[in-house]
Amino acid sequence: MTDSDRVTLYYNHHSRAVGTRVLLEELGAPYDVRFLDLEADDQLKPDFLAVNPMGKVPTIVHRGAVVTEQVAVTIYLADAFQGAGLAPAIGDPLRGPYLRWIAFEGSCFEPAIMDRYLKREPAPRSMSPFADPDTTIRTILDRIAEGPYLLGERFSAADVLWGVSLDWITRFGLLERTPALGAYLDRVTNRPAFLRVAKTTAEIEAARAGHGRAG
Q: CA 72 to CA 87: how far, in whole Å?
């Protein structure tokens, strides 16, 4: 790979950008991290807003193109580094299910979880991007229970997206870690890429804690 293949990742370890970093590790893609201190509102400063006016991460830059939105970033990177085999190619029968589950995470699952957590009244079915929270959650849990991965025997970038999302959501108590869900998360989050990013996160936290004591 050449320098032009390097990905710039705007990142914070307490954000959805963790999933993007795990994916980059899984892909073996060359990348540089630009850390944004969310507590200092780095994401709202002019330099970053010039890249992503939404002031959100993950945001990547690759070959001069800015890509935002977690679902788009997942699809883009897995296709850009196709050699890693984490994205079924166009024409592969698994391509449709792969895109379905990636889109489902952002367009249905996250809004449903937040509606349930905030105890918001669901929108009328005809206006909602998902059926209702319970149906949405049951849909993904039923698929996961079939295992071992979202595409059956094939691990893909969709599992990276869902693995990080569900790991966080269960840690915060927004979803019960059932035996089937726990087994899925164990399979995904014990992969070397996840463990490397978890180690990096622990190192960042330790460094920040040490800096605080020194001050």
A: 13
Counting every residue, how long is the chain?
215
Is the torsion defined by CA of 12, 15, 18, 20 positive or negative? negative
Angle, CA 180 vertex, CA 151 and CA 189 arms, to 5°: 70
22, 160 Cβ separation under 8 angstroms: yes
CATH number belonging to domain 95-185: 1.20.1050
pLDDT digits (tens, 9 = 90+) for 105-129: 999 999 999 999 999 887 888 888 8
Q: Tell me: the pLDDT tens digits for 30-88?
A: 999 999 999 999 999 999 999 999 999 999 999 999 999 999 999 999 999 999 999 99
Pinpoint the alpha helices (H) of 10-149: 17-27, 46-49, 70-80, 95-104, 110-117, 133-146
Q: Where are the beta strands (DSSP E) in the chain?
A: 7-11, 31-35, 59-62, 65-68
Amino acid (one-letter) located at 147: G
CATH topology of domain 3-85+193-214: Glutaredoxin (3.40.30)
State mean pLDDT over 2-17.
90
